[in-house]
Amino acid sequence: MNSCYKKDEWLIIEEDFHPELNRESESIFSIGNGYMGQRANFEEYYSGDFHRGSYIAGVYYPDKTRVGWWKNGYPEYFAKVLNAPNWIGIDIVVNGIQLDLAKVKIHSFRRILNMKEGFLERKFRIDISGGRTLSVSSKRFLSMAEPDLGIIRYSLKPENFKASIQFTVYLDADVRNEDTNYGKKFWKEVNHEIVDGKGILTARTMKTDFHVALGMRYLLVKNNTPENFITEIIDKPKYIANIFSAEAHEREELVLYKYVSVQSSLNHDKKDLTSVVNQRLDFAVNSGYDKLLKDHKNEWGKIWSGSDVIIDGDISAQQAIRFNIFQLNQTYTGKDERLNIGPKGFTGEKYGGSTYWDTEAFVLPFFLKTASREVARNLLIYRYKHLEKSIENAAKLGFKNGAALYPMVTMNGEECHNEWEITFEEIHRNGAIAFAIFNYIRHTGDTEYMNDFGLEVLIGISRFWSQRATYSQDKGKYVILGVTGPNEYENNVNNNWYTNTIAVWTLSYALENLELMKKEYPGKFKDLIGKTKLDFTNESNRWKELIKNMHFPYDKETNVFLQQDGFLDKEIAPASTIPPLERPINQHWSWDRILRSCYIKQADVLHGLYVFEDRFDTETLKRNFDFYEPITVHESSLSACIHSILASRIGNINKAYELYLRTARLDLDDYNNEVDDGLHITSMAGSWLAIVEGFGGMRVLNGKLHLNPLIPEQWKSYSFNARFRGILFEVKITPKEVLVRNLSEKSLQLAVCKKAYELNGYKKLSIKNQVIKKISQ
Ligand code: BGC
Q: CB of 638 closer than 6 A to ligand 1?
């Protein structure tokens, strides 16, 4: 476990340089603004081990699939968000010696991520040579207010000597992805311009032909006065630089400001990119560093006012939850419906930055409760726009008549995952996409969405379920065969309870809304029928038949829902009996042994109970939780959070807290030893949900907001800000009181521990102790 980060409420601090953990720290200290992201690589040259990573949302490469044995239906490529041209580069040579942290003696080193204000800072003092001490500090941010701008303040101060400092300020498109399948570089240069003090480099991606133009300007300041210098120009393919030198006397500080604008053909005509970059750089330089930083901080202030969680009495938990909220907001800002959320955000290459069911099942519920409705709506529109491709995807697998199978992994709507058990079998993702529509509408009240977009998607997905289910003579029931549920430690199973449940739910939800539309908006209904060619009578009869007669595996003796048919044929023994040296099993056991075992990678039946919790009584939830939790190994980062929420729901607060800790500090403490690959953005949403839905008991049921709060005994109090139907409110929970404050003008109707209240604009409500005790028993 990594323990090199200091605990602080708002900061992540790395004291001393740990070269062996550099890749981990580069992930942890990543910055982003939804439009682009940057791992915490050093600006200056570094000859040690690091993983360079700059990413631009939506700019990807379809890397040709590499599999051992090709199967019909496999996608041609695996999409990769590209490692984009390097914008941060500033190489430094002091009195002829290259500044390279791998080579010099380091007196002190601090890397700080300021989550409140959204910037990365690094300060270090080194012996550059023979006792000459140099202090360096760099601060950089990707502006939340002006998302195309990246800004760096890089300062050097010789402490006990006179220095001649040479700066090489550069942009570099000669970059590569570490995860390339065939060792290719994915960028070609389009053109470049470089003169004294400014340069623009345009590169394009192979195959996808995204054009990206990066421009830089800079300013060197000594004693608050801009320095003049003579510049040498370096002008190589895919690389442009200015080299210049300046002198600094003992204790004199030289500060370099580097302004970069990044524009892509996603947002502008290719031919306009250079002029847009120039305009944006004029704007950046005229605004100046201080103003840009101020506006950036201001945006972060707004984000925090909608989503902060304050935990009193547990600094470790406090730091962790803010880290999670911070990274989620760095990854997605909801301004562009073409973008989505990769499981690693902008912090690494793993999972290719592509879209998974993670978005709908985990991240959407976070944004639904913390951001304006447009943010979540854009996530839904993203899938709406991919409907046609998902119909094509289903057709490739043999489905017809407008059946839609959304991809398990995608960048542009096409499937790009190529493990058969996931690509072809993990069809539950279709259910999550349908459920997201329901979840969006119940949180926002935006019922128009259903008629305008939602129903088309629901029809496509329902048609898929309707064709995917088959009739079993033996059971006298409909069955869904050959699937993989959320628990990927089982493949090709029949009747995964969660999949069958969400399939049937989709059919009912689609029917209910079609009937409603038919009755209330006959004109729209007619248009929809025309567009989708729905044979309402026949298709809906089939759906009704499936709803009535679906098979759900259940064990009468234990009274639990079975993950799949035959689950109890397995030898059931708690995961605690697995020798610790054999954990995680995915690193120690053969795949075959894992598949035969009863061990569960991530919530499966329990994921279903989480989604459809309001249909089940506490006893049922508890029985299933007690059966499945002991055999769950939580080897996916998406597991512990769901278990934690359910543990809170059944009143097992200690278990809920134990599981919460596992999710919240997963990356900061590097539980799974894989932070070097990037952060677990999806599970970060899960940790937030474990507080707000878990401990806070926040639910939206029948159009009403509910809170059923608990508090872990380790905490003196906690509070969270959240939104419901456009109303921002704060909930503070202590062992003796629930305090709800309406932070908006509109009045808020809610139920706390099942008792209804109305809270007028800006008013607060205090509910004293007996209620909390009653709930937590
Ligand atoms: C999980 C999937 C998830 C994927 C990306 C896998 O380990 O099992 O449910 O979609 O990671 O986060």
A: yes
- The tokens for 118 are 């959204």
pLDDT tens-digit map of 275-329: 999 999 999 999 999 999 999 999 999 999 989 999 999 999 999 999 999 999 9
What is the pTM for the complete model shown?
0.96
Residue 404 in 3-state DSSP?
coil
Confirm or reject: Cβ of 456 under 6 Å from ligand 1.
Answer: no
Amino acid at 309: V
Tell me which residue has its CA closest to atom 5 in ligand 1: 343
Give me the catalytic one of 26, 121, 488, 490: 488
The answer to whether the CB of 58 falls within 8 A of the CB of 385 is: no
Output DSSP code: residue 754.
Answer: T
**Is 693 among the residues known to form the active site?**
no
- DSSP at 516: H
* Pocket flag, ligand 1, residue 602 (CB < 6 Å): yes
| Number of helical (H) and strand (E) elements in the chain, helices listed first | 23, 34
Cα(3)–Cα(675) distance, integer angstroms: 13
Which of 358, 362, 430 gets mutated to test ligand 1 (max ligand atoms within 8 A of its CB)? 358
Tell me how far apart the alpha carbons of residues 153 and 157 are, in angstroms, rounded to a whole number.
13
Tell me the residue type at 687.
Answer: S
Q: How far apart, in whole angstroms, are the C-alpha atoms of residue 102 and residue 412?
A: 41
Report whether 257 contacts 151 (CB < 8 A). Answer: yes
Tokens of 573: 């023994």
State how far the Cα of 615 lies from the Cα of 195, in Å rounded to an integer. 67
d(CA 645, CA 697): 8
DSSP run (H or E) holding 771: helix 770-776
pLDDT in tens, 705-738: 999 999 999 999 999 999 999 999 999 999 999 9
CA distance 598 to 489: 9
Local structure of 660: helix, strand or coil: helix
d(CA 315, CA 313): 6
Cα distances (angstroms) measured from residue 130 to each of 127, 161, 167: 7, 11, 21
The CA distance from 618 to 610, in Å, is: 12
Residue 68's pLDDT band, with cuts at 50, 70 and 90, is confident
Say what the alpha-carbon torsion angle 523, 526, 531, 536 is, to the nearest 10 degrees.
Answer: 150
**How far is Cα 717 from Cα 736, in angstroms, rounded to an integer?**
9
Q: What is the DSSP string of 594-656?
A: HHHS--BSS-SHHHHHHHTGGGS-HHHHHHHHHHHGGGB---STTTHHHHHHHHHHTT-HHHH
Ligand 1 atom closest to Cα of residue 343: 12
Query: Three-class SS of residue 149?
Result: strand
**Would you call 330 exposed, middle or buried from its count of C-beta atoms within 10 A (0-12, 13-18, 19+)?**
buried
Q: What is the pLDDT of residues 585-610, one digit of tens each?
A: 999 999 999 999 999 999 999 999 99
Q: CA nearest 701: which of 610, 611, 614, 608? A: 614
Do 496 and 428 form a contact (C-beta atoms < 8 A)?
Answer: yes
Task: Report phi then psi at 588, rounded to 5.
Answer: -125, -25
DSSP 8-state code for residue 748: E
**Nearest CA owner, ligand 1 atom 9:** 486
Distance CA 150, CA 138 (A): 13
Structural tokens at position 540: 């809906």
Q: How many residues are given for the chain?
A: 777
- CB-ligand 1 contact for 390 (6 Å cutoff): no
Which tokens hold the place of 249? 């006397």
* Predicted pLDDT of residue 775: 41
Which residue in 24, 34, 38 sits closest to 680, CA to CA? 24
Cα separation, 470 vs 563, in Å, equals 19
Expressed in angstroms and rounded, the spacing between residue 636 Cα and the centre of ligand 1 is 7
* Euclidean distance between CA atoms 539 and 419, whole angstroms: 32
CA 264 to chain centre: 22
Q: Mean per-residue pLDDT for 488-507?
A: 98
